[in-house]
Amino acid sequence: MKIITHSPEETIKTAEKLGSLLRAGDMIAYRGGLGAGKTTFTRGIALGMKLGDNVSSPTFALVNEYCGEKMNLYHFDMYRIESEADLESTGFYDYPFEDNVAAVEWSENIAAYLPEHTIYITINTIGENDREIIIEDGGRFADSWN
What we know:
Largest sheet: 7 strands, mixed
Number of helices: 3
Structural class: alpha/beta
Low-confidence stretches: none
Order of helices and strands: EHEHEEHEEE
């Protein structure tokens, strides 16, 4: 599924809709260059999950956790991860993913370790504020955008 947005606000609204459809155990893997809008998209996911919009880039923390009444959102930055040993040192495997949702920036660096049913979000910059958002979800959310 491909969606074009023309502002950060539209990107957030798209992600908010997706966030409202997520369920425990979902893993979001982002693809997109620096400044493409991965953290902006995560802000929308958090809003859709009713977690608020106080989302910031996990660049220096490696992971930010946003807590909700029913589910948490774990927001990872894997930019500096180069091996499974690096991934393990982040504590990635210790998070209770089956009961929560995770969003992974720079997922390319850990592609071999992502679960089979990962939802891939590719964000391409096509203009100053324009983004092409490609959601690969095995068709799970297709009816939600019709």
